[in-house]
Amino acid sequence: MPGLGGQIAMTTDGNACETLPGFAVFASNSLSEVREHIARTYCPHHLSVARRGERLDAWLNHKRLNDIGIGAMTYGAEVSIEGIEDEDMLLLMQPLAGAAEVGTRRGTVLSTPAIASVVNTRDLKRMHWSADCTQRVVQISNRALDHHATMMIGRPLSRELEFAQEMPVDAGNAHWWHYASLLSMELSAASGSESRAVLGSLETLLILKLLESHPNNYSEHLRPQPCKIAPHHVRRVEQFIIAHAAEPVTLDQLVDVSGVSARALFDGFRRFRGTSPMAFLKAVRLERARDDLRQAEPGTSVTSVACKWGFYQFGRFSAQYRKMFGELPSETLRNLN
Fold it and tell me: 287-326 b/e with 16+ CB inside 10 Å = b?
């Protein structure tokens, strides 16, 4: 088995953190062992060495968070990858050296240090990596992408998200890879609950920026629109809700805070926020409950979190939570553990 010293591939800006050397998963020249580790981390597949007699010198560094996995890997030989199974995720792969040909049901991408590939595992059919190819790979769950897109658009998606399969690594997309590098750096230095909160924020930022900036079949609805400035009474009530979400809040209170009639308050929220004041309160509380579940200490229960945020009908809480986030609160807690 080769040593790990060769795992730090320097990028154009000299930042070794992008290959996550502190999160080694394996280093091996065994075909079966390499295939097993890669399948466990990404997708089951068939792996073969392209040139007779050539020997693998593979390694993988990887860390999985809640909705995103980030890592770097190489095979150390020219390889072909086929029979790739769908694991319900989007893969963003940027060669740091070498090249990879990525074939999907939508066409073929030749990925180089100048062009990253953006492919969904449901479309992925085959890949061919050059012997000198080292790639950093960001994986994002389709569930998380769908959830954030739904929240941004304000309605359920009517068809599957499809992204452009090529992402030029140029000034237009440099910010996204910069955020990915920040996530890698934070992972390398992470410790304690404060770091977990930062990592969660960076995860969300990566997903939102990808949806906003990389062309996809919902880009028209996901790109930032010219801002409609809500009336002061709407913003005042929003600020009150955010500050007092853990306390009992009534509609009469919100009307008093707004300084306008209940009808004017409802009309303002409908026109500028597409919702009602109490629905906004519920959404804030559900988001806070999700944050608590994703950062829960051992022994935390779903019931205690639900009660903290004013949900006392637990079946209804679970149903509303699943509708908003695509999973049960118990699943969020179990995924953390």
Answer: ebbbebbbbbeeeeebeebbeebbbeeeeebbebbeebbe
